[in-house]
């Protein structure tokens, strides 16, 4: 089968930074589906993994978002059948979606939204899983009772990136008041269109920005860009009994003591934890993707796709990586065969 990979870190404008090559087509066993890939998206994790790579003896295939058709099922598969059109974000410790076929465990897969084309659907799985788990598992917000969340305020650091663009929509649907950060006119417009009630600038001090909007304290904080710059501001802004979740972490050691007086909670979200550690609740990613698919099909949320490249090959994946590396990405970029 065709595949795209790398064997050492090179700048993305080097044609060898990602190259086309051939691999044997794998076979499905156990809980695995073999999926023929029709569209993939690129996330910052692709850049991080490629950039931090040692020199490899054989090429590595990355890519953590896919839409495709199930062509073969393992003997323990119960959730899907041959011919199903599926979408998923995959596992951190298995070969990625940048290939003609990919094996994926059925428990982290959902049926793709029927009303969306491949590109619009491929934009969603990784960011939607991350946003869902951060908001409704780690922050403990109840998605099903928006009336109970009325008046509760969520601050999102980085509203216009891939995760922010779906987190704003989900938080808005859950009844929260959403303050999202954005620093350019285009990103400010985008976050307002995607469910933010108000915006702040992440290049400025969040305490000043948020207090200027009239809020003394914030009930929930969702960090989607790194804790170093704003950690002490988050501690000052978080409400007593408030909750903070980060999907990124910090380069510096994190001082948790500054949350003690407020009795505030801090949690991490990593979308790959369930599949890497085969947790008991791993199948919840199937359930979340099923829910996201329904919300997309019934128009409650919209795809965050902004850029489409075709076909899936090394040249177009290098272009997609370049866009994500720019640190100016709004929503998502997808590479598709259709
Ligand atoms: N833990 C997990 O499971 C998980 C999952 C997905 C992503 N992530 C991580 O989450 C981060 C965000 O990824 P993403 O795909 O959502 O978005 P992204 O592509 O990193 O976001 C692009 C946006 O970042 C904003 N930005 C630039 N500088 C910023 C700053 N100093 N502070 C805040 N925002 C800034 C820009 O908005 P402006 O132009 O308005 O400045 C731009 O639109 C990445 O580090 C990624 O690796 C983690």
TrEMBL record:
Sorted UniProt keywords: Metal-binding, Oxidoreductase, Zinc
Family matches, as InterPro entries: ADH-like_C (IPR013149), ADH-like_N (IPR013154), ADH_Zn_typ-1 (IPR014182), ER (IPR020843), GroES-like_sf (IPR011032), Lipid_raft_assoc_Zn_ADH (IPR052585), NAD(P)-bd_dom_sf (IPR036291)
Keyword Signal: no
PANTHER family hit by this protein: PROTEIN AST1-RELATED (PTHR43482)
Keyword Oxidoreductase: yes
One annotated GO molecular function: oxidoreductase activity
Stated family: Belongs to the zinc-containing alcohol dehydrogenase family. Quinone oxidoreductase subfamily.
Source organism (scientific name): Lentilactobacillus kosonis
SUPFAM superfamilies, per the entry: GroES-like, NAD(P)-binding Rossmann-fold domains
Residues annotated as domain Enoyl reductase (ER): 13-335
Protein name: Zinc-type alcohol dehydrogenase-like protein
Database matches in Pfam families: ADH_N, ADH_zinc_N
């Amino acid at each position: 089968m065709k595949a795209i990979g790398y064997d050492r870190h090179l700048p993305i404008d080097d044609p060898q930074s990602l190259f086309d090559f051939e691999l044997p087509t794998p076979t499905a066993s156990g809980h695995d589906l073999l999926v023929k890939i029709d569209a993939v998206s690129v996330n910052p994790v692709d850049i991080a993994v490629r950039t931090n790579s040692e020199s490899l003896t054989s090429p590595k295939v990355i890519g953590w978002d896919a839409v495709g058709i199930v062509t073969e099922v393992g003997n323990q598969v119960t959730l899907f059948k041959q011919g199903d059109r599926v979408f998923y974000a995959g596992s951190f410790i298995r070969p990625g979606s940048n290939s003609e076929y990919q094996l994926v465990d059925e428990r982290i897969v959902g049926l793709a939204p029927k009303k969306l084309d491949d590109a619009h659907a491929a934009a969603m799985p990784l960011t939607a899983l991350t946003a869902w788990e951060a908001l409704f598992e780690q922050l403990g917000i109840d998605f099903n009772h928006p009336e109970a969340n009325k008046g509760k305020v969520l601050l999102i650091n980085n509203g216009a990136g891939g995760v922010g663009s779906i987190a704003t929509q989900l938080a808005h649907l859950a009844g929260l008041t959403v303050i999202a950060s954005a620093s350019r006119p285009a990103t400010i417009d985008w976050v307002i269109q995607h469910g933010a009630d108000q915006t702040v600038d992440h290049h400025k001090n969040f305490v000043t920005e948020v207090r200027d909007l009239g809020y003394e304290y914030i009930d929930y904080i969702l960090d989607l860009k790194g804790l170093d710059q704003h950690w002490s501001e988050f501690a000052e802004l978080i409400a007593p009994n408030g909750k903070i979740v980060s999907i990124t972490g910090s380069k510096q050691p994190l001082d948790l003591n500054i949350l003690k007086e407020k009795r505030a909670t801090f949690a991490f979200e990593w979308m790959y934890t369930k599949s890497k550690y085969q947790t008991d609740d791993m199948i919840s990613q199937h359930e979340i993707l099923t829910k996201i698919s329904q919300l997309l099909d019934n128009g409650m949320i919209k795809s965050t796709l902004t850029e489409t490249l075709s076909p899936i090959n090394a040249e177009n994946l290098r272009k997609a990586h370049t866009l994500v590396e720019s640190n100016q990405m709004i929503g998502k970029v997808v590479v598709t065969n259709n």
